[in-house]
């Protein structure tokens, strides 16, 4: 019958989770299922115009849209499932601050498994880029709004409430390489120096 479903496959669980966002080792069984079915998942997503990225050393996997030069014949007709998102100045600044925190976390060879930053420390760094504003309440609100956006993108997640703190997720390292981090740091410093806070250094995410 036309309404019959095919036999269930475990990798369908991983496929749905990948469409929802990043899968990492914290996801336990989903990660195990993904790692046991990489070839099936790669083939499935390729038909949708998506590339499955599995970074085993970092313990994460995610999807990205195929670029135009990667399209086989006929695939250019596929609608895009993921759209690039241009981040605001503040969101880009926050990405740079968090990525720099993650770089220090790795360099220090700490025994901690997670890169966690307290909200108050992050605000001190954030505040330094707006020396002329002087409105801490407004700046705090803008920081929380930027954190909320990055949480939607999977770059951070709330870690604790007392004191308020955030975990920087490894996907940010994959999305924002060391070279791109240095380029954005230069752009942000130039923009802050000219006080053109509405300029948006380019950071496209999916």
Give the fraction of residues assigned to helices.
Answer: 40-55%
Radius of gyration: 20 Å
What is the CATH fold-level name of the largest domain? Arc Repressor Mutant, subunit A
Between the first and last Cα atoms, what is the distance in angstroms?
38 Å
Please count the beta strands (DSSP E, at least 2 residues each). 8
Whole-number average pLDDT?
83
Name the beta content range: 15-25%
* Count of helix runs: 8
- Which structural class best describes the helix and strand composition? alpha+beta
Number of domains: 2
Q: How would you describe the shape? A: globular
CATH class type of the largest domain: Mainly Alpha
Strand order of the largest sheet: 1-3-2
Q: Please name the CATH architecture of the largest domain.
A: Orthogonal Bundle
Order of helices and strands: HEHHEEEHEHHEEHHE
Return residue spans where pLDDT drops below 50 for at least 5 consecutive residues: 196-206
| Quaternary structure state of the chains depicted | single chain
Structure notes:
With 206 residues, the chain is of the alpha+beta class. It folds into 2 domains: 11-77, Orthogonal Bundle (Arc Repressor Mutant, subunit A), CATH 1.10.10.2250; 85-205, Orthogonal Bundle (Arc Repressor Mutant, subunit A), CATH 1.10.10.2260. The chain has 8 helices and 8 strands. Strands 1-3-2 form a 3-stranded antiparallel beta sheet. A 3-stranded antiparallel beta sheet has the order 5-7-6. A two-stranded antiparallel sheet has the order 4-8. Strand 6 and strand 7 form a beta hairpin. Helix 4 packs across helix 6 (136-152) and helix 4 packs across helix 8. The protein is globular, with a radius of gyration of 20 Å. The two termini are 38 Å apart.
């Amino acid at each position: 019958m036309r309404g019959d479903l095919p036999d269930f496959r475990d990798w369908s669980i991983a496929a749905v989770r990948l469409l929802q966002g990043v899968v990492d080792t914290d996801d336990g069984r989903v990660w195990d299922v993904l790692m046991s079915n990489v070839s099936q998942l790669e083939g499935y997503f390729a038909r949708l115009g998506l590339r499955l990225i599995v970074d085993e050393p970092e313990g994460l996997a995610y999807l990205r849209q195929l670029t135009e030069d990667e399209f086989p014949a006929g695939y250019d007709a596929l609608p895009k499932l993921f759209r690039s998102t241009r981040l605001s100045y503040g969101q880009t600044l926050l990405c740079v601050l968090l990525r720099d925190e993650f770089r220090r976390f790795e360099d220090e060879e700490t025994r901690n498994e997670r890169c966690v930053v307290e909200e108050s420390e992050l605000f001190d760094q954030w505040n330094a880029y707006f020396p002329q504003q002087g409105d801490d309440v407004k700046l705090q609100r803008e920081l929380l709004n930027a954190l909320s956006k990055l949480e939607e993108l999977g770059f951070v997640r709330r870690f604790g409430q007392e004191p308020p703190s955030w975990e920087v997720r490894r996907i940010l390292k994959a999305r924002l390489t060391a070279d791109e981090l240095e380029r954005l740091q230069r752009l942000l410093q130039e923009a802050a120096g000219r006080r053109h806070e509405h300029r948006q250094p380019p950071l496209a995410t999916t």
